[in-house]
C-alpha cells in the first residue's frame, strides 16, 4: 500500500514538473487578430408609441494578441474590446466628442458597469482575465472546442464547462474567433519573449456629419526580460459608417465584414499615392522590423518630422526615410501602451 502511494506521488510529481516546464514554454510565434462589426449601428427608428429614436453608430472591435509555442499552444494571450458609439444631433452633426480618445473595456475597468448586472458579481475585465487564464496551454483547436450554451439572444455562446461557469458568463464567440485569426496570421519571433502586450489608439477625429469614422491603431508586442521588442505586429482598423440623410438610414451594409489595413493589403489603395510606391501594410512591416531589438523608450524616441497637416510624425532617420512615409505617432503610442500593459 505504501509502495503504491509512493508511486502515485511520484507520478503526480512528474506530471507537475511536466506541466510547470510546459507552462514556461518559449513563444516562437506572435499573432494579432480582430473581429470588427458595425452591426449594432442603426438609422432613425420609431417605437410603438410613435417616438422617434435618433440614429446611432457603433463599432465593436474584439482584439486578441497571442503568443504561441512550437507546438501551437498558447503561451500568452491578451484580449480586449473597443466599443465605440457615435451619436448625432438633428442636423446630422455629431454630438459625441470626437476629440476624446476611445477607451477599451479593459481601460474602463469598473466604469464599464457590468458588475451590477452580472449574476456572478464580476466585472468584464475580471471575466476576460479568467478566460485568458483558461486558454493558456491550449491549442486554437482546443479553444474552439470549448463547450458553450446560449443564455439569450445577446449571449449565444457562454462557456458551459465546470472550470468557467462560475467565473465567465459573457458570450465568447468573437474572442475565440479573434484568437483563431491571430493563429492564422501568426509570424515567427526572436527567442526570449517573456511578456506580451496589447496596445491601441482609438480615434474619432476623422468623423464628419452623417459619416462617423473610428480608427483603431493596434499593436501586439512581445518583450524580453530587458524590455526589448522580440516580436511586434501593427495594424489599423478603419471603420466608416456613412448615412443617407434623405432616408435617415445607413448607407452601408451593417453586416458587411470590416477589414483592417493589413487584411485589405493592396486594396487599401495607398500605393498609387505613395511617393515610394509602397502600400500601407508594406510600410507598417518596415516599421515593425525597425522596432525589433529596441525598448519602448527607444521606439518612442524615434526622430520624426511633419510633412503636412495629415502627416505630423513621419520617420526622419536614414534607415526608414525611403521605406516609411506614413505618419507613425499612433503606432508609437500603441506600442508604448503594449509595453505598459504587458504581462
Write the layout of secondary structure elements.
Layout: H1 2-23, E1 29-37, E2 45-46, E3 52-53, E4 56-68, E5 74-87, H2 105-108, H3 124-135, H4 140-144, E6 148-149, E7 158-159, H5 162-165, H6 173-184, E8 187-188, E9 195-203, E10 213-223, E11 229-240, E12 243-244, E13 249-250, H7 261-264, H8 280-291, H9 296-300, E14 304-305, E15 314-315, H10 318-321, H11 329-341
Antiparallel strand pairs: 1-4, 1-8, 2-3, 4-5, 6-7, 9-10, 10-11, 12-13, 14-15
Outline the structure in words.
With 343 residues, the chain is of the alpha+beta class. It has one domain. The protein is built from 11 helices and 15 strands. The strands form 6 sheets. The protein has a 4-stranded antiparallel sheet. Strands 9-10-11 form a 3-stranded antiparallel sheet. It has a two-stranded antiparallel sheet with strand order 2-3. A hairpin with a 5-residue loop joins strand 10 and strand 11. The chain is globular. The protein starts with a helix and ends with a helix.
- Give the rounded overall mean pLDDT: 92
Number of DSSP strands?
Answer: 15
The tally of domains stands at 1
Largest sheet: 4 strands, antiparallel
> SSE order in H/E notation?
HEEEEEHHHEEHHEEEEEEHHHEEHH
Supply Rg. Answer: 22 Å
Q: How large is the share of residues in beta strands?
A: 25-35%
Amino acid at each position: 500500500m505504501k509502495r503504491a502511494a509512493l508511486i502515485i506521488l511520484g507520478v503526480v510529481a512528474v506530471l507537475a514538473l511536466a506541466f510547470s516546464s510546459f507552462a514556461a514554454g518559449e513563444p516562437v510565434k506572435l499573432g494579432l487578430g480582430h473581429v470588427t462589426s458595425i452591426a449594432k449601428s442603426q438609422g432613425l427608428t420609431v417605437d410603438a408609441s410613435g417616438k422617434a429614436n435618433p440614429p446611432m453608430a457603433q463599432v465593436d472591435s474584439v482584439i486578441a494578441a497571442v503568443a504561441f509555442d512550437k507546438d501551437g499552444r498558447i503561451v500568452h494571450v491578451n484580449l480586449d474590446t473597443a466599443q465605440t458609439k457615435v451619436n448625432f444631433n438633428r442636423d446630422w452633426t455629431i454630438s459625441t466628442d470626437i476629440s476624446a480618445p476611445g477607451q477599451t473595456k479593459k481601460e474602463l475597468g469598473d466604469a464599464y458597469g457590468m458588475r451590477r448586472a452580472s449574476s456572478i458579481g464580476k466585472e468584464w475585465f475580471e471575466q476576460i482575465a479568467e478566460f485568458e487564464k483558461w486558454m493558456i496551454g491550449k491549442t486554437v483547436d482546443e479553444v474552439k472546442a470549448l463547450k458553450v450554451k446560449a443564455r439569450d439572444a445577446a449571449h449565444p455562446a457562454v462557456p458551459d464547462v465546470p472550470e468557467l461557469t462560475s467565473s465567465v458568463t459573457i458570450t465568447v464567440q468573437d474572442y475565440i474567433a479573434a484568437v483563431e485569426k491571430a493563429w492564422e496570421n501568426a509570424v515567427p519571433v526572436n527567442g526570449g519573449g517573456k511578456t506580451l502586450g496589447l496596445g491601441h489608439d482609438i480615434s474619432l477625429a476623422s468623423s464628419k456629419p452623417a459619416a462617423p469614422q473610428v480608427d483603431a491603431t493596434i499593436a501586439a508586442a512581445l518583450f524580453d526580460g530587458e524590455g526589448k521588442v522580440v516580436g511586434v505586429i501593427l495594424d489599423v482598423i478603419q471603420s466608416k459608417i456613412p448615412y443617407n440623410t434623405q432616408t435617415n438610414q445607413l448607407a452601408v451594409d451593417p453586416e458587411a465584414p470590416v477589414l483592417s489595413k493589413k487584411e485589405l493589403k493592396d486594396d487599401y489603395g495607398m500605393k498609387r499615392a505613395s511617393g515610394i510606391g509602397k502600400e500601407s501594410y508594406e510600410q507598417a512591416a518596415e516599421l515593425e522590423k525597425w522596432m525589433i531589438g529596441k525598448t519602448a523608450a527607444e521606439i518612442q524616441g524615434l526622430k520624426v518630422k511633419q510633412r503636412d497637416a495629415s502627416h505630423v510624425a513621419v520617420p526622419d532617420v536614414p534607415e526608414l526615410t525611403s521605406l516609411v512615409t506614413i505618419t507613425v505617432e499612433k503606432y508609437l503610442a500603441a506600442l508604448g501602451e503594449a509595453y505598459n500593459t504587458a504581462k
